[in-house]
Amino acid sequence: MIKLSCPACGFSKEIPADRIPPGKKRVACPKCRETFPLPSAAPPETPVAAEPEPTPQPAEEQSPVEQQFPADDDQLTIVCPHCSVRRNLPRDKVPSRTVQVTCPQCSKKFTFHGDQLQHDETLVRPEQHPTLAPSLLPTPVLEPLRRKTLSGVAELFDKSWQTFVRRILCLIGIGLLVLCLAGLGLWGLTALGQYAARLSEGSMLVHYVRVALMGAYAFIMMTWAGAASIYALVDEDLGILQSLGCGLQRLGSFLWVYLLVSFMIAGGSLLCVVPGLLFAFWFLFAPFILAREDLRGMEALLKSKAYLEGFGWAVLGRVLLAGLVVAIATAILSLIPFLGVFLSNVFGLFTMVCYVEIFKELIEIKGDISFDCSRNAKLRWPLVAASGFALGLVIVFAAGLIG
User: What is the 3-state secondary structure (H, E, C) of the chain?
Assistant: First the structure.
């Protein structure tokens, strides 16, 4: 065994002598990047003159990253696919699920699949010498053929129907549980409001506060039900309680995404309607991105828009057709006595299923895409929506002056 010790930072590692390639003279410390000579490469002690200064490495041994001896078994090296910057993390701090990572060097985002890591896997690229770092070389894996286009309308509806049949009981269970909790909460708020009204002798302020609280509570419960349903469709291994737990855990993030989308649709609609329609379409997949990739706020909205680039018209046609089919079907089901309202509401979930299937196909086509999430990109569209509200206020103010 040969002990390699970095003279700059003190990091050390013992490796077998037979793992050092012949002729290798210098290595780089994986922590501080300082290069130093191998002990075996030291000049022999002979009366002959001292060995000259080491010559530069041959061209074939140079690489963008210095050769390194193996990192500790309890660490993983994560490499940014955009700028190739590296960072070592302890294994116990590496997330065990798929998350979005922001590179501190180039500020771009990429997907880190922590749930696919095994004990001996690492994310270091195979740029090291196979003898010095054999455990860091990933086994070549043949990637499946990537989808090129979206499915046809008939195939899309068939896939959506199969998913709908598989997950309908879970979706109904989520809806019923949230409906019961919402009913209990609204009953409590109503009783509390009536008691407050008697104490305040019918004050209108108390009435308005009660109405506002009931509206906010209803919106929160609807958002929770929608978030849990999205988790149940994005990950079909989740049950009713698991989906509700995931939705509750990210309830604040879903509320923020829905508020952002609503703000921009309303503000864009004040600018001659068309911007509002564009915003509604561009940001359609933002809740699904939040559930699948844990991207929040404007980042989820911007990635939704990025997924649609190049497939806007194809997705728009399928979205409109799915909405039309569901609208006709729910109108027919609502005519059935007693069960009509329930059946029409249940089948209305088919629209969400179609959207999820389209979203999954876009992921199969584009994979993990890069998108601009700079501060300017995050502010661009909210400022457009804010200008719509400003224009509306100017028009109202001008109409008041004229009147």
Answer: CEEEECCCCCCEEEECHHHCCCCCCEEECCCCCCEEECHHHCCCCCCCCCCCCCCCCCHHHCCCCCCECCCCCCEEEEECCCCCCEEEEEHHHCCCCEEEEECCCCCCEEEEEHHHCCCCCCCCCCCCCCCCCHHHCCCCCCCCCCCCCCCCHHHHHHHHHHHHHHHHHHHHHHHHHHHHHHHHHHHHHHHHHHHHHHHCCCCHHHHHHHHHHHHHHHHHHHHHHHHHHHHHHHCCCCCHHHHHHHHHHCHHHHHHHHHHHHHHHHHHHCCCCHHHHHHHHHCCCHHHHHHHHCCCCHHHHHHHHHHHCCCHHHHHHHHHHHHHHHHHHHHHHCCCCCCHHHHHHHHCHHHHHHHHHHHHHHHHHHCCCCCCCCHHHHHHHHHHHHHHHHHHHHHHHHHHHHC
